[in-house]
């Protein structure tokens, strides 16, 4: 078994993950992410030993469930999806492809992004730079695929309007003999109001899906994986910035200055105070559209204002920060933002204010009543993580801001 050295800085009992390196020269297996993910939650003392044994059995005899694993009762579903993904494997050639999504009756274009190294964050002299964007530091990224555009309504509504009675946490109230694997993935309950928030004509095809929580976006990735046999998740913050820059060291993917921004982005100056159809602006050099503007995009990481400073000087290979209970991050800026928020390095932390108008108590774990500027896109990494890591990345943000 290979040795792994975990680089981490502990913040109030949680871990800031800066990446890992090999302690020997043995080949890297598909489970490379497993040792990079830690969290602060502990298994509650009130949980019965019997329930814990049942959960251990669901994960398989060789895979005891970590004490801090979220949504432990759903590990059986994750295991089945993991088996499907392992059986599917990776394509023989690393190239862009179109993914068919059967339940939605639609498809998703996935763009191959080569691995490489880049400077993450913004230089001190960049106009409108904020403290949480620095210091710039070198990060290495493994190859991955990322969706060409933000996820549109025609894909997301098949997940959101799933047509089955569900508990508030998204579990089916009654299972049927002919249920498919993706039916067992927790999915949203019906929203109390249309989640286009009055923009456009209903859930109009071609417009990006909006107003979903970080948890909902992550569960969409699980639902998509269960249908396709390919592992999808949200992009890490580092993957997102690397893909956005497409090799550009400037403030934007096309370079510096705001003169060309209208060609690449929908933002406050040109959006007519609403979101616009995906893919209607110029792509960056890697063929990705709407990385700047239209809707801001969820990334996988938790928000830590000084994360870059704590990581600077340490080896950073595919870095990821997960701190349960911490805010999440949106990237890219949106239709309602000024140009400075659309910069490649700009970061924004989530806030409970994005769900301020939700009349429920507790608030919905699926919808953001004040999140009409928020959407997401998906990533398919080359490396398939182990079951517990996969489960954690689909479930750690439930009920958080």
TrEMBL record:
GO MF annotation: an example: formylglycine-generating oxidase activity
Domain Sulfatase-modifying factor enzyme-like, first and last residues per copy: 109-355
Compositionally biased intervals (Basic and acidic residues): 23-35
Polar residues composition-biased segments: 352-361
UniProt-listed Pfam families: FGE-sulfatase
Region (Disordered): 23-49, 333-361
Gene3D superfamilies tied to this protein: paralog of FGE (formylglycine-generating enzyme)
InterPro entries: CTDL_fold, Sulfatase_Mod_Factor_Kinase, SUMF_dom, SUMF_sf
Name under which the protein is recorded: Sulfatase-modifying factor protein
Annotated source species: Akkermansia muciniphila
Source taxonomy: Bacteria, Pseudomonadati, Verrucomicrobiota, Verrucomicrobiia, Verrucomicrobiales
């Amino acid at each position: 078994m290979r040795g792994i050295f975990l680089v981490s800085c502990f913040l109030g009992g949680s871990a800031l993950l800066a990446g890992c390196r090999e302690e020997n020269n043995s080949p890297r297996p598909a489970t490379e992410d497993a040792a990079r993910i830690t969290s602060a939650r502990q298994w509650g003392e009130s949980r019965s030993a019997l329930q814990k044994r049942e959960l251990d059995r669901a994960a398989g005899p060789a895979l005891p469930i970590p004490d801090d694993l979220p949504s432990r009762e759903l590990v059986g579903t994750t295991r089945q999806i993991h088996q499907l993904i392992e059986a599917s494997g990776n394509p023989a050639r690393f190239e862009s492809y179109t993914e068919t999504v059967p339940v939605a009756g639609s498809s998703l274009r996935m763009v191959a992004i080569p691995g490489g190294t880049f400077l993450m964050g913004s230089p001190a002299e960049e106009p409108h730079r904020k403290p949480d964007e620095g210091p710039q530091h070198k990060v290495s990224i493994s190859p991955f695929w990322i969706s060409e555009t933000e996820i549109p309504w025609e894909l997301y509504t098949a997940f959101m309007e799933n047509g089955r009675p569900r508990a508030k946490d998204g579990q089916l109230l009654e299972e049927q003999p002919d249920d498919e694997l993706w039916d067992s993935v927790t999915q949203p309950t019906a929203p109390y109001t249309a989640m286009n928030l009055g923009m456009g004509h209903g859930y109009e095809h071609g417009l990006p899906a909006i107003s979903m929580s970080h948890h909902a976006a992550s569960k969409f990735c699980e639902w998509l994986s269960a249908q396709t046999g390919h592992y999808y998740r949200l992009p890490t913050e580092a993957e997102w910035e690397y893909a956005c820059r497409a090799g550009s060291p400037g403030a934007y993917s096309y370079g510096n200055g705001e003169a060309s921004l209208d060609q690449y982005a929908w933002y406050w100056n040109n959006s007519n105070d609403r979101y616009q159809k995906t893919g209607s602006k110029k792509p960056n050099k890697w063929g990705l559209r709407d990385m700047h503007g239209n809707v801001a995009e969820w990334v996988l990481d938790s928000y830590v204002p000084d994360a870059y400073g704590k990581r600077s000087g340490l080896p950073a290979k595919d870095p990821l920060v997960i701190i349960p209970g911490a805010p999440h991050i949106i990237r890219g800026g949106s239709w309602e933002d000024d140009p400075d928020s659309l910069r490649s390095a700009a970061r924004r932390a989530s806030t409970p204010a994005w769900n301020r108008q939700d009349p429920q108590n507790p608030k919905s774990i699926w919808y953001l009543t004040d999140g009409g500027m928020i959407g997401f896109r998906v990533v398919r990494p080359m490396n398939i993580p182990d079951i517990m890591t996969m489960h954690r990345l689909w479930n750690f943000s439930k009920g958080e801001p």
